[in-house]
User: Fold this.
Amino acid sequence: MDDRASKRGPPSPPAPPPGGGRGDEERERHTASPPPPGGRDRERGSPHQTLHPFRALAADPFGPARAAKAAGRKVVGHVGPAVPTDLIRAAGLVPVPLAGRPDGPTDTADRWLDDVFDGDVRSLADDILTGRHGWLDLIVIPRGYEPHLQLIYALEEIRRLEPGLRFPEIVLLDLLGSPHWRTERWNRTRLALFRDRLAALAGAPVADDALRAAMDAEAGVRRRLRAAAALRHQVPPRLSGADALAILAAPAFVPPETVVPWLDALLAEPPPPLPAGRPRLMLKGLGFDAPSLHALIADTGADVVADDHPWGDPLADRGDPGAGDPLDVLADQMLREVATPRSFPQAVQDRRMMDRVRAAGVDGVLVVLPEHDDTLGWDWPGQKAMLEAAGVPAVLVLNQPFASPDGVALRAAVADLLDRIAARRAA
Assistant:
């Protein structure tokens, strides 16, 4: 069996330092890859001109940040999507997301980290410790995912024990996720401290007008992303799962003034419909910032029409900023509209999941959780009951290793889900 798609699996590589390093390995990507022969070509369908910029960026997502660094700009790496990139842009800095690499070495990290650190975090730590991210001016890690918080503690202790080991300053963005006025005040204070740290790096204060302009610009991008999601919801869909993932990821790597024309062109001239009659699936879980599982699913004859995970459709959930002090507005949005694995109440996240199921006309849901998961699995029984009540079958796959997802188990889970969908249609 060819497990190429699953082994490339979730998540994927971070940025290379500019100007040399590991040759071709430095061109590895964070979000997607050029299609190899077979499944991924079929999954993406025929080439279409309005998809070209997104596919080109997916092939080298760190190119824009490296170019900005070479031009003298300062670049801020951030881990996960729960970091306000509009605040980074308002400071005149360049944000770029970071993640582990499934085929990257972890020898250095293995010397320091306990076995409970999952493969994504272990790979990311190795890249930080070995200087792969040494070109960054700052690395920001939010609190919303417990392994990331533990990673910060580990890195700071390693820095204390090995003062000769050089890597960028690590900043904890200590935002909490429970909807309470005390939490919002805490988060507002933390965002103010973060703004001050960014201002120090930029060498100039972050003006309210600049923050408001950056928030408005990114809100315009999210409006267009929501409109692009509607292309997936059509019957048949007009975006493949892999292309939709590349479109959702693009605003993390290029500024609004670059990506807005791409999105406008896509919406004005969308790709032709995909083949009709294929089952429509939603993906849930963690680790889908690369499209390998989307390609595996396409090989089985189904389409991914919704992605309910941190690098999927939730990236566009945050609405337009309201009136008032921009930092107050940002604190409110980060608390109530930006989902993390530890966002509360869970009922809000579950309602958004069901809204996506209905909007996309989902036939079935595939949930894939990584090894060492200690958060999302607790939510599964309630979510499964909600899906079953709506007549939507779902299949759960547990303990998927970061570096080598079990292709056999994933294919079996997809086949099981498609059988359940077929049985429901026949009933």
User: Anything to note?
Assistant: The two ends are 32 Å apart (CA to CA). Residues 4-426 form one domain. The chain has one domain: 4-426. Residues 208-233 form the longest helix (26 residues).
